[in-house]
Automatic annotation (TrEMBL), chain B:
Protein name: Acetone carboxylase subunit gamma
A Pfam entry, by short name: Acetone_carb_G
Superkingdom in the source lineage: Bacteria
Classification of source organism: Bacteria, Bacillati, Bacillota, Bacilli, Bacillales
InterPro entries (alphabetical): Aceto_COase_bsu/gsu
Amino acid sequence: MNLAKVLNEIQQTKKPIGWDGKTLKEMRHEIDEISRETGHYAGLTKLPFKEADPIRFEKIYSKLRGGVVHARETAKKVAASPIVEQEGELCFSLYTPEADSIVTSTGIIIHVGTMGAAIKFMINNDYEDNPGINDKDIFCNNDNHVGNVHTCDVHTLVPIFWEGEVIGWAGGVTHVIDTGASAPGSMPMGPVQRYDDGYQVTCRKIGQNDVLSKDWLLESTRSVRAVKYWTLDEKTRIAGCHMIRDLVLDVVKEEGVDAYKQFIREIIEDGRRGFVNQSKTMLIPGKYRQASFVDVPFKDLDLPSFAKVDTILHTPSEITVHKDGKLKIDFEGSNRWGWHPFNATPVSITSGIWVMLSQTLVPNDRINDGAYYASEFGIPLGSWFNPDDLRSAHSNTWHALVAAWSPLWRGLSRAYYGRGYLEEINAGNAHTSNWLMGGGYDQYGQLSAMNSFETSSCGVGASAVQDGESHTAALWNPEGDMGDMEIWELLEPLVFLGRQILPGSGGAGKYRGGNGWQSLRLGWGAEEWTMFMAGSGVMATDGGLMGGYPAAAGYRFQANKTDIKDRIKNKQPIPLGGDTDPDNPVFETVMNAEAIHRDRQAVTTQEEFKDYDVIMNYLRGGPGFGDPLDRRPQDVEADLNEKYILLRYAEKVYGCVFTENNGTYAIDLNATEKKRKQIRKDRLNRSVSTKEWINHSRDNVVNMDAALQVRHMYAESFALSEKFTDEFKEFWNLPEEWMIYEEDLDVPLLGSRINRFKEKKERIKQ
Amino acid sequence: MAKYDKKRIAELVDGTLEFYQLKEMMSDFKDPERFDLHLSVLQERVPWDDPILLPYGLHLYIVQKKNGDRIVKCDCGHEFCDYRENWKLEAKIFVRNTEELMNEIYPKLMSPDPEWQVIREYYCPGCATQLETEAVPPWYPILLDFEPDIDTFYKDWLKKPLPTA
């Protein structure tokens, strides 16, 4: 007791490191209070610095922004991992002492929020007292439950001091190749609990006086695979943070600390105002509703029994654009977290939304926490992006996040359409997968791991004025790059047999979604290597818009113990890509194998992968916009000749008729016009009025006639949300007693704690 | 601030602009005149006279009727319902819920598994245009996608009176 008292007193005698004798915790509390009370960041109803000296204000901003981008561009050259060095999966951000973001680099800017969450965690847990926050300290975090996206996003955080006060934080993040999880790779399949997710570092002080501690270096490098990449990634992050620290100190020396302090407050309030202005410029007040779904086909995977469940992650969203231009996104109705690695934290979903918005609603370089202060989110506790249990796994959270965000594009696009900003419309984003991962002893005999970031170049959603770009981008990093095959081959014990556009992978429409593609890899040179993949297989995760179709769903192709070695020796044909029509597969015609997997099971767990085994990576397309019958026939002709669509779909979906000469197709306009008229007639003949359809479909609902995974999804949403339940029952006009309970479905219930039905029963008992 | 003429906006609607022109329009500050220009391009093209209050979706408009009603109307002239109701409930629907029906749109394995997810297509009863699709698990309620606050939009944001019939 006495010892605790003494320790407490010693800690309290430490001089606070915040401004004007305050602790960082007191500063955080003050900012929150005054921002909430006034509706303006830091209570700034005016921007005196900006208004009095706008040139100086912008000069400071440009210096900081340019410096942060420069830090990223320079520091990434330190890395050896192609994920960082080639794909640019890194980001740097500068924060206020209380962890509000001032300015951010390019790159994976989702981490504006996640690194801020880590600094807030340190502030809230009194790190100022213990372990202490000192000049030249280095902190590390990758703990998912602190607010990280997933374990492989490792943060380095460095406080910036000026004359004994913290004037800010520099943060850097890289996506590392391996985190020592229960399976290799950065986003492994296999983890179903936090304890499988890999090496998690909870905001730990790992260095002092700009030097990393030896215990940290030893422990961290013994905890992950692919150590050389881990080590160089860390040096990358530290180099970038130190460049930013130097930059800030230079600005303070030049402008004075008082000007800097005023600037960092005003720039965030300026960002908040800018967001509201953009909202009023481009949106329409009202409500926008949409929903996303992504498959969790785990029933037959090699996992603990409580995780072997087929289910669907359900994410309805309602965007409200208020009269004052503020935005609310409510995810009420979303279903439960589960024993899979697709769970997320609230910070990762909200921060990721800014990645999206910075590509559409606020397409400028003022990415800071100002937008956050102009928005509100409804994130149900117990849902897959707000688990009420520290055990939840998050290693592959992008599986669910990219699906959840896709409908938000459609909501915003309805506003852009109404306002006439057709060039901003986007039918949605591709499900950036498959992730092709593996690990073992690589071709150099080193313990290593891989995650193919070819996903950086999926198809883009169509707009209202042009097709989505093909094989070119990913939602999460605005600088899409599929990487050079030669570089991937240097890192990974897999030879490229081919890369090929996959016809029809983009959703059809007046403007079609950008196409995806496939690459075919051959195992070569590794020992004790395992492979697996992760992607949506049984569901399309991104709906079309205004008559366009969703992008195609995924599938897997893998062949083990092939005869390719003999075929090469005997100069026989081998698969070299070009398997562009799964109705007429060709890979199997040019090889034999003991096991061939060609199916919708696009999430798998580790299996041995040997030399001459073959695995395909299928990178998804984007969704389409508008009725395909509205597509210009000459565009369909070009698609066909450039092999972006298959002939039979040019006819069936687009209603275009062609003549063929030496493999080149020419549109027959007269026959096309007739064909399109016929398709319209057929549509009317085979459709029914929606009200009639509701009447006869109601029987299926009443009789609970749906697959278990579908009923499970609804049961979880019903258990968490009364509003969703009421709306569902009202739509189908269901009797009071109709309900699906999780307990009645004969599925594992481990961890299903929040349940309004149970709570109701308990209330009645009392 | 960017400024475009009606011809440019008509070309935008037609999808005939070059990429560099679109890129310019995306990168520049938005032109406040766009709403009016876009509306006037669309109004000239529809074969009916009801004033358009808001473009609601490709081929769909919220229009002002003489009796004061605001309804969702297709450019073919088919009138759906009050704009606060869900026009999809007044449309024709076709549901792709078998492998065979999915295979009409996607190659094998590239469609959703219909046990997990179906594709709903909503057609205009007048012209059979496919106005919207949904990719949802069976039983999913039909959502009212967009509920605009037209009065606030005109009065407080555009600061102009609503068009009258």
